[in-house]
């Protein structure tokens, strides 16, 4: 509440008390008090906050501006889930997107910072407060940056994610074979073992092997098909 609004509130309260204690209080005075009440409610309704907000929360982007740039490729990838050159390439693809063009005099934060916040939020187990503390921004800003980056990336999906051609499918299949993940005998043996088990349930070892195979295939596809933005 502003200083003027506080003055108005005090004036209204004193006037009400004065009229109530007045011995010559009449019906017309009651109508006047009702009118004052209405005006006071309207005035208070325009106040967004009843108490002053605290804006002086300590924030610092020292880690982002000074520590992160000094990391080698291995450390950088642990934080951002991609190599520095891939990070820069992705920034260059996003920087001209309308999502990052301000329509008013207030400029947005650099795309590099917004992307860094997005990657850390999605690529780690840190909560919003931990991310905002690391990058020196507010909690709501973390969500805003993530929303912008996600919309911009999704809008580019048709450019980078396409249904594979026959040649591309052969390329993927050959890649699996080269690392020994698509041997026909493995799948045939697996199917035979499944048929022999009651209720078609896999034992723990087979289930674990399938998980490992599935994870390996997913990583290989991400590395090959989504190049150059190697996220893994």
Give the topology, please.
Elements: H1 3-21, H2 27-45, H3 62-67, H4 73-80, H5 84-94, H6 111-123, H7 128-135, H8 139-155, H9 157-160, H10 166-178, H11 184-196, H12 204-225
Helix pairs in contact: 1-2, 6-7, 6-8, 7-8
Describe the structure.
The chain contains twelve helices and no strands. It is mainly alpha-helical. It folds into three domains: 43 residues; 99 residues; 60 residues, no CATH class. Helix 6 packs antiparallel against helix 7, helix 6 crosses helix 8 and helix 7 crosses helix 8.
Identify the notable features of this structure and list them briefly.
232 residues; mainly alpha; disordered C terminus
Number of strands: 0
Order of helices and strands: HHHHHHHHHHHH
Q: Helical amount among residues, as a percent range?
A: 55-70%
Give the number of domains: 3
Short structural description:
The protein is mainly alpha-helical and 232 residues long. It has twelve helices and no strands.
